[in-house]
Amino acid sequence: MANAIRFLSMDAVQRANSGHPGMPMGMADVATVLFRQFLKYDSQRPDWPDRDRFVLSAGHGSMLLYSLLHLTGYKDMTLEDLKNFRQLGSRTAGHPEYGHAAGIETTTGPLGQGLGNAVGMAMAERLLASRFGADLVDHYTYCLVGDGCLMEGISHEAIALAGHLKLNKLIVLFDDNGISIDGPVTLTDTVDQPKRFEAAGWNTLSVDGHDPKAVAQAIEQAKGSDLPTMIACRTTIGFGAPTKAGSEKTHGAPLGDEEIAGAREKLGWPHEPFVIPADVLDAWRAAGARGAAEATAWDARLAARDPEQRKRFSDQMAGKLPEGWTAALEKFKEEVVANKPKAATRVSSQQVLDCIADALPGLVGGSADLTGSNNTRAKSQQPVTAEDFSGGYIHYGVREHGMAAAMNGLALHGGIIPYGGTFLVFTDYCRPSIRLSALMKQRVVYVMTHDSIGLGEDGPTHQPVEHLASLRAIPNLLVMRPCDAIETAECWQLALEQQDRPSVLALTRQGLPTLRVDSGENYCAHGAYILQTAEDGQRAVTLIASGSEVAIACEARGKLQEMGISAAVVSMPCWELFLEQPAHYRDEVLGPGTLHIALEAASGFGWNRWIGLEGSFVGMTGFGASAPADALYKEFRITADEVVRRVKAAL
Ligand SMILES: Cc1ncc(C[n+]2csc(CCOP(=O)(O)OP(=O)(O)O)c2C)c(N)n1
């Protein structure tokens, strides 16, 4: 059975003339034991919510996963798909892509990310089990990692978090083959991996990865542990290749016809490429059907729940927001309009969370050790601990990257809508995972506070400048920068309503006035809108701003008006949503032919899209400085007077 994986992998890579045969060949025995004896799944029901999750963190070995899915009978993975490995439009992309085929639980390829996702999935399992009970949620998460995954820094954060939370149903299978691309791992790494995991609070085991009995015994032991387990599986990369086994030569290139012929001889596999003998295929298909009875029993347990609970579970797993969840939010907005508070948007964000946390049972918040600064914890949310997962708030520790990867895992698992906070400047510390949220179309909300020089005294290391531009460059990511409490509520609602994309909420440290005078319609849904019209209808100037700079634009509009210059203020909280509006709406907002001035306390990179080459940008041209916020705005001339000066110069 393991040889079936090996030859499908060798032959598919050879046919595509590209790919990585070595890892699938080395880990074929371990994977066979897992999928035949342990993994709880039903190949005919890939979306069974209580299935075990299998994450191939070493995504370059994608043919291992594709072979397994085909052999066990997943309908999405035909022999034809394997023959089309790495071809345009095929399900079998170079690295496993979430959404291409059932059974691919997450997109992997950037090493270490899968491990971070697996931690999130294991957390989701614990969170949901504590909410719905073990008769509905009780599964393991298995994750296959290579040396590369464990060398990546993200692994440190992921392992530490999992160890701390005692995620005992997380089992990591380490392909301990001592080889990476440049050669033997000893070239670059002398870490004792089991000791590292032990230090992080894990159970560790070491086995011969080509001894199925030993592997089975280890997994059995791991399942009984009260700690997460790492099983170091000593394997030979490219196992079965007559001259290249054990060498980096099998890692990332086709083996060649001669080597593959030699492997056929050595492993006693006389079959043509892509031909699986009936007895082997039968055995694999039986493995794929092993979980069917258990899935049916699970159905019965769900059916036995009262209708209200059943609906709650199904809706939550489907990511549906409960009816009426915005009721408290609407009330909050009405109060804001009535009272016009001056508040930092991070504070308004916390008030929004207080309104919605109880109405959204799947919402799970957190912060990378900046809870009090990010204002991410709603009053009703209790912290999650290793002993108690009933809470709705995760202290991720100083682990931005680990947090973001775990949030992807929480979202992918289903049943959880994750949000997490840090400072906007540290999006750089988790950018690879943000990118994957977007690529995988996951609803993850990044609450990024201290979003400009407006954070003041902490200085340029903490003041984001290029971050908004760089986040806006990520496809399928909403970057939202609300200007007051109303917009903050609107942006939160929009972020939570996105079924297939993540959002970044860029929020201020400093207080901002309430600018919106009404709360009936969610104007942020249009991405940009006219907040203040030009007084006499003859608009000469259009001031476009986001977040904290919208108030400055309003002040400038007043000054211009006094000078007899008619100006409109456009609040533009979200470029991406504005781009999706019809052209006539965009024109109405932008006022073609008027003088355009954009304000944002950040790099102007990209703003010409809205203001043209003739427009003027008031913002940052370099790094910030350490000083009170007011002094910085003056120093960098992000002021109403500067806007007036630019207008006078231009008109
Ligand atoms: C973040 C990241 N950096 C670099 C790569 C390129 N890369 C792919 S596989 C690999 C080596 C991985 O070695 P190992 O995990 O030991 O895999 P094996 O050679 O055993 O298959 C590298 C550097 C990557 N995919 N992701």
What is the strand and helix layout of this fold?
Blueprint: H1 2-16, H2 22-38, E1 53-56, H3 62-72, H4 79-83, H5 113-132, E2 141-145, H6 147-151, H7 153-164, E3 170-176, E4 179-180, E5 183-184, H8 193-199, E6 203-208, H9 212-223, E7 229-234, H10 257-267, H11 278-289, H12 292-304, H13 307-318, H14 327-339, H15 345-356, E8 363-367, H16 371-374, E9 393-395, H17 400-413, E10 417-423, H18 431-439, E11 445-449, H19 467-472, E12 478-480, H20 485-497, E13 503-506, E14 529-532, E15 541-545, H21 549-562, E16 567-571, H22 575-579, H23 583-590, E17 595-603, H24 608-611, E18 616-620, H25 629-635, H26 640-650
Parallel strand pairs: 1-2, 2-3, 3-7, 6-7, 8-9, 8-10, 10-11, 11-13, 12-13, 15-16, 15-17, 17-18
Antiparallel strand pairs: 4-5, 14-16
The structure holds thiamine diphosphate.
Thiamine diphosphate binds at residues 22-23, 58, 60-61, 109-111, 146-149, 152, 175, 177, 179-181, 237, 251.
Could you explain how this protein is built, in words?
The chain is an alpha/beta fold and 651 residues long. 42% of the residues lie in helices and 13% in strands. Helix 16 (371-374) links the parallel strand 8 (363-367) and strand 9. Helix 1 packs antiparallel against helix 10 (257-267), helix 2 (22-38) packs parallel to helix 3 and helix 2 crosses helix 9 (212-223). The radius of gyration is 27 Å and the shape is elongated. The mean pLDDT is 98. The structure holds thiamine diphosphate. Residues 22-23, 58, 60-61, 109-111, 146-149, 152, 175, 177, 179-181, 237, 251 line the site of thiamine diphosphate (TPP).
